């Protein structure tokens, strides 16, 4: 059954396993080539010395380690036998024969089951060449593997330790060895001496290198996440070899030493490097010209720091630690930051380094090399041609090439030197490099100098690439280090180093494996985005905490908090003893600024310190490029501040839908200003445009919903004023007091949860206008008008119900008996008056809002407001109504009062009644005014209709009828193109006629507040731009008004007495 299934799926098996199978074939072919090359090297008896023929020796050792690593990785693939077996079976079923590579491949898989053991046997003939190459490291590796104290005593990497030699070029006989990776050397030593282990017993120098490497590290990185545990593997290999008991004991001792001391030694190295790199970066930032002579120091510093970071990553999760503190470095971000700073200096001042080394190559190196060549006793023709080309290439260089931006390319020269090393390192060479070490050392120095001209980017990758952080083993530590960095305030200024490290990731891709690019690129983008987002969130949280503290301090300065102080002062003056003795005095605002001790640190101080540190990091680079994507750290902060500011403003309204509680506009404005002051101070830390944040957020708050579809302060306050304050006015719990220009609570059985005056007086309405702005106030007006239009719609229905009676009353106002009879036929009289009063209340509130808006705009844009006002006041009477309405709309947006309210016109004109002609609509509008006019006398019987001179109005808000009648008439007759003045004259005639009749009434209940109602006529005329007192005098004797005023004032005096 299994074979039948394979028969069906054979083509799929071949297709899916081909990539893996042929990768194994590639490994086998690579192995064949390596073995062939190693045999050739042995046959030629090649001379290896890392300090002389550096490139040849380095590449030879790299080849050995790569070969070893590859075979070890192959042995770690658990399914390797299944893959090649299954592929070959499918191949047999398809083609009738096995794949031609299968027998050799199968044999290789079996042979390399234990790769190191097999390779130890394989490398017996290559032992001398390999051991010679490794032993040449005795001049390099021990010097690199020193303790931090030895570095400190030698003042390693310090430019200022010897000021007199600061301008001298940093020189060494082994230039490329100075920045050679310690990790690479340890791999060479460990794997090299495992393969040629005989040298450990015969050569003390080899044993010394071996033990030093084993004491420094416990594991090596084979490839990315794959780790090789040195001591266990070496012990397992040597324990079965005869005569290796001493070596096994050495391994055990080194393992114990590594576990006990390596962690602390590397910790101290990182500590030293932090201060050394900081000094180096600071000096070079001040004097970038030193990058020329001291370039070697920069690349040494980068290489040393890179090695220590990689060592920590490798060991943090892969070994049993005796002291975990040595493997947790909370200051690693600082070291990475200084590495990035040095890298930035090299990239920024690359032309400075090019100028220096172009002159160095042409003026010094070419001369010295020429002398060395001239002094050679033997120089074959081929070698002579190559070295002459070196001299000619360097001599032809000039500074002008740098100034002209010419692109340099010395790769051919470096390849020629590599060839020359190969020619001169074989045993039978006429010109042996072993006999001319000075030539080798000089050429190594020249090659370094050429790299300073054309390969600075490649040098940075070679010495400071930390792309290991993208791998699984690195990513875990990467994110953990970042979180530790943010949690430690002193380290948060270095947090930008983590996003900057994401720019390294693409350097670990290879042109032979292009499919990895997208995966690694996406990983680098997601990590960079995550880091910048977290940094911005942290900064945002700190700013929010500062804002909260400042809002609390601003709240202490609100007028409401001075009441207790005033009360205490008054009681003290009158010598009244109130309260308990010994009651602590309330601290006055500003006490928090008085410091008795400089060491005293408040919470606000800590927040500002933490913010300044983090903002330094956010502001460190304007942008960074990761995989062809540009990231701008400041934009992350701006974005988060916008979102938080929006949420904070809405949150500070403290709107509770259940209890209908909301913050006073003045208190919210104080908090918002305190918040904005803090946000403005952020500009001192980061170069962001905070005005843009204000514009985006505050303009959104003037709309009904913000860009996320969430409610704004405009919608919250509009809903509250309409649904809470004005609804309570309609219920008779609140009255509008014209004298105070505010809505005031009336004494009722059920006390309200809020004081209306504290939300509607002049200062509160101005604060509301400041917060909502013209757009928000326009939305408030439109919402108010919508409520008015719904009331007018209901009024029209009542008019339609009484249309016949009202039509007769309109023409019979001079017939008293008939009017009385007709009036009795009217229905819903009280409803008409109540609805008109509600309209008047809403219009009175809008008037307050418009006046506040005008006051605010007059302060902010006085010239523009005065221009609009002048424009409005000088509209010719004969102007077309559409043009006039446009001017009124402009004026209304600026808070100016208009004869005809454009918002009301728009709201009422949007009402469309079905099956009613325009003429009928006009008639209904006229009859509505008639209905109101003839209904006014009924107000006199209401107890609450009494006029109060103190508030300049009536407690049941009927004084608001004046505004309602004028505004509704103006709007309706503008829509229906009627004469507003004529219709108001008609209204005045009807109203005065109806009110004069109650003067003849004898029933005291019906006429109890007759004088108070008379005053409505005066209010209507005073409110109207279309009516005059002369017109009123012709309809209603002024003496009655005068007597009415006298009576209500007299009544109020007697009531108060």
Report Rg.
Answer: 46 Å
Major sheet attributes: 2 strands, antiparallel
Strand percentage, roughly? under 5%
Number of strands: 8
SS content category: mainly alpha
Query: What is the 3D shape?
Result: elongated
- Range of helix content: 55-70%
Mean pLDDT: 90
User: In order across it, which strands form the biggest sheet?
Assistant: 1-2
Termini Cα gap: 114 Å
Low-confidence stretches: none
Give the helix tally. Answer: 45
Structure in words:
Strand 1 (about 220-225) and strand 2 form a beta hairpin. The radius of gyration is 46 Å and the shape is elongated. The strands form four sheets. The chain has a two-stranded antiparallel ribbon. Strands 3-4 form a two-stranded antiparallel ribbon. It is mainly α and about 1050 residues long. The N and C termini lie far apart (about 115 Å). The chain contains 45 helices and eight strands. The mean pLDDT is about 90. Helix 25 (about 515-555) crosses helix 28 and helix 29 packs across helix 33. Belongs to the HEM-1/HEM-2 family. Its main location: membrane. It is a single-pass membrane protein. It is found in: Cell projection, Lamellipodium membrane. This is Nck-associated protein 1.
Helix and strand arrangement:
Blueprint: H1 2-44, H2 54-75, H3 80-95, H4 102-111, H5 115-122, H6 127-135, H7 141-144, H8 148-153, H9 175-178, H10 182-195, H11 198-202, H12 204-216, E1 219-223, E2 226-229, H13 230-238, H14 245-286, H15 295-316, H16 332-348, H17 350-374, H18 381-395, H19 399-403, H20 411-425, H21 437-454, H22 456-464, H23 472-487, H24 497-501, H25 516-556, H26 563-573, H27 603-618, E3 624-626, E4 629-631, H28 633-652, H29 665-681, H30 690-701, H31 713-730, E5 734-737, E6 742-745, H32 757-760, H33 762-801, H34 803-811, H35 816-825, H36 829-860, H37 862-873, H38 881-893, H39 902-909, H40 918-935, E7 947-948, E8 953-954, H41 961-975, H42 980-998, H43 1010-1023, H44 1029-1035, H45 1038-1056
Antiparallel strand pairs: 1-2, 3-4, 5-6, 7-8
Helix pairs in contact: 1-2, 1-3, 2-10, 3-4, 6-10, 10-12, 12-14, 13-14, 14-15, 14-16, 15-16, 15-22, 16-22, 17-18, 17-21, 18-20, 20-21, 21-22, 25-27, 25-28, 25-29, 28-29, 28-30, 29-33, 31-33, 33-36, 33-39, 33-40, 34-35, 34-40, 36-37, 36-41, 37-38, 39-41, 40-41, 40-42, 41-43, 42-43, 43-45
């Amino acid at each position: 059954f299994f074979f039948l299934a394979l028969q069906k799926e054979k083509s799929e098996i071949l297709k899916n396993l081909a990539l893996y199978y042929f990768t194994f074939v590639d490994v086998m072919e690579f192995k064949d080539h390596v073995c062939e090359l190693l045999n050739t090297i042995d046959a030629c008896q090649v001379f290896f010395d890392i300090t002389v023929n550096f490139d040849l020796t380095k590449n030879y050792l790299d080849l050995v380690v790569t070969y070893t690593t590859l075979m070890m990785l192959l042995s770690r693939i658990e399914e390797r036998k299944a893959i090649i077996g299954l592929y070959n079976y499918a191949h047999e079923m398809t083609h009738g024969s096995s794949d031609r590579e299968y027998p050799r491949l199968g044999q290789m898989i079996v042979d390399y089951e234990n790769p190191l053991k097999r390779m130890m046997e394989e490398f017996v003939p290559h032992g001398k060449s390999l051991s010679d190459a490794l032993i040449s490291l005795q001049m390099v590796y021990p010097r690199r593997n020193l303790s931090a104290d030895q570095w400190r005593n030698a003042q390693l990497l310090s430019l200022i330790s010897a000021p007199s030699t600061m301008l001298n070029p940093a020189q060494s006989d082994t230039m490329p060895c100075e920045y050679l990776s310690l990790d690479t050397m340890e791999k060479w030593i460990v794997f090299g001496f495992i393969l040629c282990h005989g040298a450990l017993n015969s050569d003390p120098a080899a044993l010394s290198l071996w033990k030093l490497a084993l004491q420094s590290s416990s594991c090596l990185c084979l490839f990315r996440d794959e780790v090789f545990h040195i001591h266990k593997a070496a012990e397992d290999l040597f324990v079965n070899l005869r005569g290796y008991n001493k070596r096994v004991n050495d391994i055990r001792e080194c393992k114990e030493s590594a576990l006990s001391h390596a962690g602390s030694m590397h910790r101290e190295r990182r500590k030293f490097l932090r201060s050394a790199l900081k000094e180096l970066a600071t000096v070079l930032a001040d004097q970038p010209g030193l990058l020329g002579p001291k370039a070697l120091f920069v690349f040494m510093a980068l290489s040393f720091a890179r090695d220590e970071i990689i060592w920590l990553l490798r060991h943090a999760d892969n070994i049993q630690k005796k002291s975990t503190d040595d493997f947790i470095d909370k200051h690693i971000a600082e070291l990475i930051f200084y590495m990035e700073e040095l890298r930035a200096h090299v990239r920024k001042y690359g032309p400075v380094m090019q100028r220096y080394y172009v002159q160095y190559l042409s003026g010094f190196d070419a001369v010295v090399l020429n002398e060395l060549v001239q002094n050679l006793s033997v120089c074959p023709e081929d070698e002579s041609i190559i070295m002459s080309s070196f001299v000619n290439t360097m001599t032809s260089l000039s500074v002008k090439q740098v100034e002209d931006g010419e692109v340099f390319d010395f790769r051919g020269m470096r390849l020629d030197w590599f060839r020359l090393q190969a020619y001169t390192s074989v045993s039978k060479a006429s010109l042996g490099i072993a006999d001319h070490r000075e030539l080798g050392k000089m050429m190594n120095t020249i090659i370094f100098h050429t790299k300073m001209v054309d390969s600075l980017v490649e040098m940075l990758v070679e010495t400071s690439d930390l792309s290991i952080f993208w791998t699984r083993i690195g990513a875990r530590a990467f994110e953990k280090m970042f979180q530790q960095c943010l949690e430690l305030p002193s380290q948060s200024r270095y947090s930008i180093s983590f996003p900057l490290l994401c720019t390294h990731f693409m350097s670990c891709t290879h042109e032979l494996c292009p499919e990895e690019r997208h995966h690694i690129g996406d990983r680098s983008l997601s990590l960079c985005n995550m880091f910048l987002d977290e940094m911005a969130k942290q900064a945002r949280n700190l700013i929010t905490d500062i804002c909260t503290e400042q809002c609390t301090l601003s709240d202490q300065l609100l007028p409401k908090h001075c009441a207790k102080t005033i009360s205490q002062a008054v009681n003290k003056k009158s010598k009244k003893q109130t309260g308990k003795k010994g009651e602590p005095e309330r601290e006055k605002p500003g006490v928090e600024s008085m410091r008795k001790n400089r060491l005293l640190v408040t919470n606000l101080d800590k927040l500002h310190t933490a913010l300044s540190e983090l903002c330094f990091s956010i502001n460190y680079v304007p942008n960074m490029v990761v995989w062809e994507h540009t990231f701008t750290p400041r934009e992350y902060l701006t974005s988060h501040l916008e979102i938080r500011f929006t949420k904070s403003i809405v949150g500070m309204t403290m709107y509770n839908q259940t209890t209908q509680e909301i913050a006073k506009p003045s208190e919210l404005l104080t908090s918002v200003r305190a918040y904005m002051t803090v946000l403005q101070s952020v500009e001192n830390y980061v170069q962001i445009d905070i005005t843009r944040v204000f514009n985006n957020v505050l303009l959104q708050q003037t709309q009904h919903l913000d860009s996320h579809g969430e409610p704004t302060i405009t919608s919250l306050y509009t809903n509250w004023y309409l649904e809470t304050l004005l609804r309570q006015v309609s219920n008779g719990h609140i009255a509008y007091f014209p004298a105070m220009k505010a809505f005031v609570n009336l004494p009722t059985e059920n006390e309200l949860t809020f004081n209306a005056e504290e939300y509607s007086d002049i200062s509160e309405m101005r604060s509301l206008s400041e917060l909502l702005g013209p757009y928000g106030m326009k939305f408030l007006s439109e919402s108010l008008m919508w409520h008015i239009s719904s009331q007018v719609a209901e009024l029209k229905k009542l008019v339609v119900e009484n249309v016949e009676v009202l039509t007769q009353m309109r023409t019979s106002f001079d017939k008293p008996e008939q009017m009385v009879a007709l009036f009795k036929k009217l229905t819903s009289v009280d409803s008409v008056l109540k609805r008109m009063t509600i309209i008047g209340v809403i219009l009175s509130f809008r008037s307050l809002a418009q006046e506040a808006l005008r006051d605010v705009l007059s302060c902010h844009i006085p010239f523009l407001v005065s221009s609009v006002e002048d424009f409005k006041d000088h509209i010719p009477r004969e102007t077309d109504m559409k043009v006039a309405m446009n001017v009124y709309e402009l004026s209304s947006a600026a808070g100016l009062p208009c004869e005809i309210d454009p918002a009301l016109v728009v709201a009422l004109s949007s009402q469309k009644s079905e099956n009613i002609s325009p003429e009928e609509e006009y008639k209904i509008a006229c009859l509505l005014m008639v209905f109101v006019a003839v209904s006014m006398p009924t107000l006199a019987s209401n107890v609450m209709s009494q006029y109060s001179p103190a508030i300049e109005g009536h407690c049941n808000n009927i004084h608001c009828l004046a505004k309602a009648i004028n505004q509704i008439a103006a709007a309706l007759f503008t829509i229906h193109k009627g004469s507003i003045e004529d219709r108001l004259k008609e209204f005045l005639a009807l109203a005065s006629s109806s009110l004069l009749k109650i003067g003849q009434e004898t029933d005291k209940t019906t006429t109890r507040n007759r004088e108070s109602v008379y005053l409505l006529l005066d209010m209507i005329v005073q409110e109207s731009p279309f009516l005059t007192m002369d017109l009123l005098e012709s309809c209603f004797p002024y003496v009655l008004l005068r007597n009415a005023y006298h009576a209500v004032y007299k009544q109020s005096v007697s009531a108060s007495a």
